[in-house]
C-alpha cells in the first residue's frame, strides 16, 4: 500500500482524490481544516458554474491571465469534455447555458457537493489543519490543494517560491476626486456591463479588467469606450432643438449623463464636434480593489517550479492542484476548470511516480 496525503478538501483536492481512487494499492487521506467542498457552495451564485465551453485547448487557455502556456499541457491531458464525462459518471449531469457556461442540471452547488462526496468511496477525510510538511513524513506523496490561503507556507517549506498573491475578479474602488457616479446604475458598453457602486465600479467587465490588471500597481487609469461618436453625431444633427443631455441619455443612463456632462442643457445645434468626441470613452481612476465579487487569487506557487503533471521540480514527492498554483482565470467556470484539469494531472503524475 502507498499512502497519499491530500492537503485541502476543496474542489481541486476532492477531484484529485476521485481520480486516484480508481487505482489499487493506494491509501488516500484528505486533510481538511474546515468542511470539505465548502468553497464550492458559493460558486456561480450557488448554482456552480463548473466550466465553460471552448472549441480547443488554445481558446480555453486564453481565458487565464496567469497560467495560459502552462495550461496547454494540463488541458491536453484533461479537457472540458473529460470533466463533463467524469461528472456524468458520478451522477452529475450538466447543461450549457446560452452564454456557454456549464452548470449541473440540478442548478445546485450543494447537490454537486453531495454527489462528489458520495462518490469518494475509498478516500478518508480527516478534519485537521496541516501546519508543517513534516507532519506528513509517513506519506509516499503529498498533494497541496489548499487554494489561495493556508498552503503557501507548506510550499515554501519545500523550497518553493510564491508569486505574491493579489485579488482578481473583484470590484474596483475609484479615486475620491472622481465624479459622484449614480450608485446602483448599470452602464452597458460594447465591452460589457459596468455597475456603479458606493465607492467604485463593479460588474462582469470590471471583474475581467481587475483580473487583467491584477499585478498592476495602484493607482491606474482605465479607459472604456462609451458612445459611438458617429451615431451620436447623427443623433445630435437630427435633433438640433433638443438638449444635448436628452440626446446623450438615449445612449447611456440619464443619471450618468447628468453626472458626466457639463453641457447637459446646451441645445444640440450648438454642440461642437469636440464635445461629441469627449464622449467616445469614459476614464476611471482606480485606487484599489474593493474585495467584493467572485474573488480569486492571482499569485501562488511559481509555475516554473512545477512539471506539466503538476509535480514539484524541487521535491518529487510533492504535487499541486487548483488555485494554490500561480494560475487564475476569468469569470465563467474557468477557475474550476483549472481545479479539475490540474487535479487530474496531479493524479496521473502520482501514478507515474509511484508505480
Ligand atoms: C464567491 C465565489 C464564487 C465563485 N464562483 C465560481 C464559479 O462559479 N466558477 C468558477 O470556475 N470559479 C468560481 N470561483 C472560484 C473557485 O471557487 C476557486 O477557484 C476554487 O474554489 C479553488 O479551488 P481549490 O480547491 O484550489 O481551493 P479552495 O476552494 O480554496 O479549497 C482549499 C481547501 O483547503 C483547505 N485548507 C487550506 N489550507 C489548509 C491546511 N493547511 N490544512 C488543511 N486544509 C487546508 C481549505 O479549508 C479549503 O477547503 C468562485 C469563488 C468565489 C469566492
Strand order of the largest sheet: 10-11-12-9-14-13
In CATH, the topology of the largest domain is named FAD/NAD(P)-binding domain
Largest sheet: 6 strands, antiparallel
User: In terms of per-residue confidence, which ranges show pLDDT below 50 for 5 or more consecutive residues?
Assistant: none
- Got a strand count? 16
Shape: elongated
Note the gap between the termini.
11 Å
Helix content percent band: 25-40%
Could you tell me the mean pLDDT?
97
Question: What is the H/E string?
Answer: EHEEHHHEEHEEHEEEEEHEHHHHEEEH
Short description:
The protein is an alpha/beta fold. It has helices spanning 11-20, 57-61, 68-77, 80-89, 109-118, 152-157, 204-212, 229-238, 244-248, 254-260, 273-277, 334-354; strands at 2-7, 26-32, 51-52, 94-96, 101-104, 124-127, 141-144, 162-168, 172-174, 186-189, 192-196, 200-202, 220-225, 281-289, 296-301, 318-320. The protein folds into two domains: 2-167 and 297-354, FAD/NAD(P)-binding domain (3-Layer(bba) Sandwich); 172-289, no CATH class.
Amino acid at each position: 500500500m502507498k499512502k497519499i496525503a491530500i492537503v485541502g478538501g476543496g474542489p481541486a483536492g476532492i477531484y484529485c482524490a476521485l481520480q486516484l481512487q480508481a487505482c489499487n494499492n493506494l491509501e488516500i487521506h484528505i486533510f481538511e481544516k474546515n468542511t470539505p467542498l465548502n468553497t464550492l457552495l458559493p460558486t456561480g451564485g450557488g448554482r456552480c458554474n463548473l466550466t465553460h465551453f471552448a472549441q480547443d485547448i488554445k481558446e480555453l487557455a486564453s481565458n487565464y491571465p496567469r497560467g495560459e502556456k502552462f495550461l496547454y499541457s494540463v488541458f491536453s491531458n484533461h479537457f472540458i469534455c473529460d470533466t463533463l464525462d467524469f461528472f456524468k459518471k458520478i451522477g452529475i449531469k450538466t447543461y450549457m447555458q446560452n452564454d456557454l457556461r456549464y452548470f449541473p442540471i440540478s442548478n445546485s452547488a450543494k447537490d454537486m457537493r453531495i454527489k462528489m462526496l458520495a462518490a469518494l468511496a475509498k478516500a478518508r477525510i480527516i478534519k485537521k489543519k496541516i501546519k508543517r510538511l513534516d507532519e506528513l513524513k509517513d506519506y509516499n506523496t503529498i498533494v497541496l490543494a489548499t487554494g489561495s490561503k493556508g498552503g503557501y507556507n507548506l510550499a515554501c517549506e519545500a523550497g518553493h517560491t510564491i508569486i505574491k498573491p493579489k485579488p482578481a475578479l473583484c470590484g474596483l474602488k475609484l479615486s475620491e476626486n472622481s465624479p459622484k457616479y449614480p450608485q446602483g446604475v448599470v452602464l452597458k458598453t460594447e465591452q460589457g456591463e459596468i455597475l456603479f457602486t458606493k465607492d467604485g465600479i463593479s460588474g462582469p467587465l470590471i471583474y475581467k479588467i481587475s483580473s487583467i490588471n491584477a499585478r498592476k500597481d495602484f493607482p491606474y487609469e482605465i479607459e472604456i469606450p462609451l458612445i459611438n461618436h458617429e451615431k451620436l453625431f447623427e443623433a445630435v444633427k437630427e435633433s438640433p432643438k433638443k438638449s444635448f443631455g436628452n440626446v446623450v441619455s438615449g445612449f447611456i443612463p440619464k443619471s450618468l449623463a447628468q453626472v458626466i456632462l457639463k453641457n447637459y442643457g446646451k441645445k444640440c445645434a450648438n454642440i461642437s464636434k469636440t464635445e461629441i468626441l469627449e464622449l467616445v470613452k469614459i476614464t476611471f481612476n482606480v485606487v484599489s480593489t474593493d474585495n467584493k465579487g467572485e474573488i480569486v487569487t492571482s499569485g501562488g506557487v511559481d509555475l516554473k517550479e512545477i512539471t506539466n503533471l503538476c509535480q514539484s521540480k524541487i521535491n518529487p514527492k510533492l504535487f499541486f492542484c487548483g488555485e494554490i498554483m500561480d494560475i487564475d482565470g476569468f469569470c465563467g467556470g474557468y477557475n474550476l476548470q483549472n481545479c479539475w484539469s490540474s487535479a487530474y494531472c496531479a493524479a496521473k503524475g502520482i501514478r507515474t511516480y509511484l508505480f
